Amino acid sequence: MKIIKAKDYEDMSRKAANIISAQVILKPDCVLGLATGSTPIGAYKQLADWYKKGDIDFSEVSTYNLDEYRGLSHDDPQSYHYFMRENFFDHINVDLNNTHVPDGSNPDAAAACSEYDRIVAAAGYPDLQLLGIGNNGHIGFNEPDDHFSKGTHCVDLTESTIQANSRLFDSIDDVPRQAYTMGTQTIMYARMILVVANGEAKAQAVHDMCYGPVTPECPASILQLHTNCVVVADEAALSLCE
Questions:
Q1: I want to staple 50 with a disulfide (CB 3.0 to 4.6 A). Which of 55, 57, 185, 213 is the partner?
Q2: Which whole-number Å values give the CA distances from 153 to 42, 122, 178, 234, in the listed order?
Q3: What pLDDT, on a 0 to 100 scale, did the predictor assign at position 166?
Q4: What is the pLDDT of residue 86?
Q5: Does residue 242 have a pLDDT over 80?
Q6: DSSP classification of residue 201
Q7: Would you give the DSSP letter of residue 4?
Q8: Which residues are catalytic?
C-alpha cells in the first residue's frame, strides 16, 4: 500500500486526478471503477477541466460504479446515476452507453445484483478502481460486518452511514435504508485501487485501513492485501498515521 500525502482537499483531488488521467492516457479503452460521495468530486472536476483543455479523451473509456441506493429511479436527483452525470459524465466525452451503475430501480435485489456482477465480470474488472472511505471504514456500501462480502449484494445501511449521507437529502427520513453495492471481493479484482480521503473525520478510518488488523469490522483494511493500492489523503486524514 502506497500512501501519498496531500496538503489539502484541492491538492488531494489534483493528485488523484493525475493518477486517473495517466491510466486513461496509457490505455484509452480502459475500464474505470468509479465512486460517489463528496470526496471524489474535486478529482472529477479536475479531470473535466483537463478534458476541456484537450489533455484527456474519455471516448473509449467504460465505467462501472460501486453502488446505488435501492428504490431510486435513474433520474432521481439523489440517485448515483444522477450524481455521476451531474458531477462528471455530462462534462466529458464518455459514451453514456459505456457507463454503468447498479440498477437501484429494480426491486428484485437478487436479479439486479447478479446482473451487475455479470457485466462487471464481462468487462474484465476495472483497470483502476476509485474508492472513498466511510467514517466507519466502509468501502462502497460494504459496512462493518463479521465477514468480507463477495459479489454485488443488497445491504442495510448503518445509522452512521445514514447520518453521514443525510446532508445530501432534505431530511434524514428521506435517506434510503438499503443499497446495492459491489462486494469487497469484486473490488479486490481491480488491477489498481486508488483511495481518496480528506478531513479529520476520516483519520481513524484511514489509520485502521492502512495499519490496523485486516478485519471485516473495518472493510477497507482488506486493501492492505492488494498488490497495487494507492492512498491519496490530506494531512488531516493522515494525522493518526504519523
A1: 55
A2: 28, 18, 10, 31
A3: 83
A4: 97
A5: no
A6: G
A7: E
A8: 67, 136, 138, 143
pTM: 0.94
Pick from 181, 190, 109, 178: which is nearest to 141 by CA?
A: 181
Please state, for a pLDDT cut of 70, what percent of the chain lies above it: 100
Tell me how far apart the alpha carbons of residues 80 and 175 are, in angstroms, rounded to a whole number.
13
Q: What is the pLDDT of residues 46-98, one digit of tens each?
A: 999 999 999 999 999 999 999 999 998 889 888 999 999 999 999 999 999 99
Task: Give how far the C-alpha of residue 211 lies from the chain's centroid of Cα atoms, to the nearest Å.
Answer: 21
Burial track 82-111 (b if 16+ CB lie within 10 A, e otherwise): bbbbebbbebbebeeebbbbbbbbbeebee
Q: pLDDT tens digits for 119-136?
A: 999 999 999 999 999 999
Q: Answer for the pair 143, 67: CB distance below 8 angstroms, yes or no.
A: no
Q: How far separated are the first and last CA of the chain, in Å rounded?
A: 15
Beta strand ranges found along the chain (DSSP E): 2-6, 31-34, 62-65, 67-69, 99-100, 128-131, 153-156, 178-181, 193-197, 229-234
Q: 3-state SS of 152-192? A: CEEEECCHHHHHHHHHHCCCHHHCCCEEEECCHHHHHCCCC
Q: Residue 112 is placed in which grid cell?
A: 439486479
